[in-house]
Amino acid sequence: MERYIGKQLAHNPLALAALYHDGLGRQWTNQRDAAAALTKLGVRREHVNRAVRVASMPVEVLSLFTEAGLLDKTARQLLSLQRTVGRDSLVQRAGAVSKEGKSWTEIIQLLTGEPVSAPKRRRPAVSQPLLRAARYTEGLANNEWSTLSEASGRTGWAKTKISEAISVSKLPAVVIELFDAKRFTTKHAADLQAIVRLLGITKVVRNAKWLTEHPGRRTSKEILKYLASGEPTPDCDVAVARKGTSVTISFTFEARPNVRKLVDVDQLKMLSISAFKNSVEVPR
Question: Are strands 237-243 and 246-252 parallel, antiparallel or unpaired?
Fold first, then answer.
């Protein structure tokens, strides 16, 4: 059962069957009661019934899926195949199948006697976080994976990269829709998260709404700059640079028209320290 921990219970028939038998006579007396008890986990009566039936299939068949995994869709196909060819014939076919390096789809094809489809071309690597988050969501919807670990194994992306991509994609739409997903890089995502943590989401959304109301062609860098500073002023430019663990914030303006607004270096330093004491660490 350990192999299925972390996946949705309704889509993991062997785990569901083990849980059903473990609670039978103690937590429930039949499949209907079990489904009612597990309904908050997305389990329905047909899930329980299918899980119990597939778990009783010959070990020669089930052992083919110890590496590839056995999902609810796989269970439906196996039960249908067993009805078609019979239990004994299915066991014979299983004995001729090598499970090494094969997906559950390929194993099913071999059991049914169909030619194994040529492997699909691997999707090109995606480094843009918004595209990565969209691909992860698509994979969940298509049952390609159900956890970050599975998605990481299938795509080759680090779990942290997927998690970071999901995090930035969940920011309010008025902010995310300012950016071109194909040009929005990992660095842009890190800068955006830093701005949100420093200013708070309310201020960032307010600045994003101003940009939406004043459309124009802007680079991701220009958008981030505005989200951090608000409505642009003609006499002051703010830049943020990060190198390793060091962050440098610089203010550039003409001294002459702003001479009365200037403060000495010590005062500016104290203001900066005070501001950052109430902020959070800028992510690396």
Answer: antiparallel
- Which of 184, 92, 88 lies closest to 131 in space, CA to CA? 184
Helices 87-95 and 104-112: crossing angle in degrees, nearest 10, is: 120
The string of pLDDT tens digits covering residues 134-185 is 999 998 998 888 888 888 888 888 889 999 999 999 999 999 999 998 889 9
173 and 138 in contact (C-beta within 8 Å)?
A: no
Cα-based distances in Å from 271 to 137, 267, 278: 43, 6, 11
Reduced to 3 states (helix: H, G, I; strand: E, B; else coil), residue 247 is: strand
b/e per residue 90-111 (b: at least 16 CB within 10 A): beebbeebebeebebebbbbbb
What pTM, to 2 d.p., does this model score? Answer: 0.42
**Cα 160 from Cα 158, distance rounded (Å):** 5
Nearest partner of 8 among 108, 134, 149, 143, judged by Cα: 143
